[in-house]
Design goal:
Layout lengths: L13 H32 L1 H9 L3 H29 L5 H10 L14 H10 L3 H30 L6 H15 L2 H15 L3 H13 L8 H26 L6 H17 L8 H12 L4 H42 L2
Helix pairs in contact: 1-13, 2-13, 3-4, 3-6, 3-10, 3-13, 4-13, 5-13, 6-7, 6-10, 6-11, 8-9, 10-11, 10-13, 11-12, 12-13
Membrane topology: Multi-pass membrane protein
Pfam families: LPG_synthase_TM (PF03706)
Subcellular location: Cell membrane
Length: 338
């Protein structure tokens, strides 16, 4: 009798493995270039000056910066819950917050596509297909764009600061948010785009489906509520940047600091780099220099605000990611058990 052979595990598709490897290499490469650039610039201005600026901050001041970031995350998480509830998902506030915050672990994936892991958790716990829940990501981004564009526009007007590209970026963000949150307009653009070009039909079909999925969010003031929460949240982080600059001795007004922070965040996102790494930092340092802030101060200020915003969010995400994975798998098993 022939010996029974133990079935081997199915091989991992080579294409998927190589894609994941490339994405990780891109992220690590960007981070390495960022660190090298910051270290080189700090060395050019003098290590001692840079360290002296960092030492000006006390523990309570760092705690205040982190608290303001937490306010941003909490308000945007509440917005995610409101959107999910309006869509018809029967998940609790605690579960939606876990999904939203846990998704921050994937912030540094290219285009932040890794944050779609939230859709996977929702599918496990509710059985909803990703096509039905994907509008959550779209409306979440649109709400952020609208809030950040309005806040930055107001800050630019109040500060009188001339940021090159500030108005175009603001207008682009507002236009994108307006189109995405108008299902009928988005569907019309998809039809016109296809009839005019005849190219990439799959993309226009997806746009039309997305417009249909956004219909539930266009009623009941849901988008307005979400944008107000996002406005307050991003304002909190903008104030954190202003306080940081003031504590470090920079003579920059609150409106100017908020405008610089938001413009840099949006500009970094437009580069498509994971988390806007590199682009946001470069824009922030350059704009602070235009305001007369010396490099020895703008470098540590930029590094610290990114640590207490972007990287703080990633740390929270990394802490909650395994919990969200474990909970979603447990719920999935319970649903599948007869």
């Amino acid at each position: 009798m022939p010996l029974e052979q133990t079935p081997s595990a199915p091989p991992v598709p080579l294409a998927g493995f190589l894609k994941a490897l490339r994405e990780r290499a891109v992220v690590l490469g960007l981070l390495a270039l960022l660190v090298i650039g910051l270290l080189g610039a700090a060395a050019a201005t003098g290590w001692q000056e840079t360290l002296d600026q960092i030492r000006k901050l006390s523990l309570w001041q760092v705690g205040a910066l982190l608290l303001l970031s937490l306010i941003n995350y909490a308000l945007r998480g509440l917005r995610w819950h409101i959107f999910a509830k309006h869509l018809g998902l029967g998940l609790t506030l605690q579960r939606n917050m876990l999904h939203f915050l846990g998704g921050f672990a994937m912030t540094v994936t290219p285009g932040r596509l890794g944050e779609l892991v939230r859709m996977r958790w929702i599918k496990r716990e509710t059985g909803w297909a990703i096509e039905r829940t994907a509008p959550l990501v779209l409306v979440d981004r649109a709400s952020d764009l609208a809030a950040m564009a309005i806040l930055m526009g107001a800050a630019l007007c109040l500060s009188g600061t001339q940021i090159s590209g500030g108005i175009p970026v603001t207008l682009l963000a507002l236009i994108a948010a307006f189109i995405v949150t108008r299902p009928a307009l988005l569907a019309s653009l998809a039809r016109v785009g296809y009839r005019t070009t005849g190219l990439v039909p799959r993309m226009f079909v997806r746009l039309r489906r997305a417009s249909q999925a956004l219909v539930p969010f266009s009623t009941g003031g849901t988008l307005m509520t979400g944008s107000v929460l996002a406005f307050i949240g991003w304002l909190a982080e903008g104030i954190a940047f202003y306080l940081l600059l003031a504590w470090m001795g920079a003579d920059v007004s609150a409106s100017t600091a908020i405008a610089i922070f938001l413009f840099s965040t949006l500009a970094g996102g437009l580069t498509g780099a994971p988390g806007g790494v590199g682009g946001a930092e470069a824009a922030m340092i350059a704009l602070l220099s235009f305001e007369g802030v010396p490099l020895a101060l703008s470098l540590p200020a930029t590094a610290l605000i990114r640590l207490t915003t972007l990287w703080f969010a990633i740390v929270i995400g990394l802490a909650l990611f395994p919990i969200a994975e474990r909970v979603s798998k447990r719920v999935q098993n319970e649903l599948e058990t007869p």
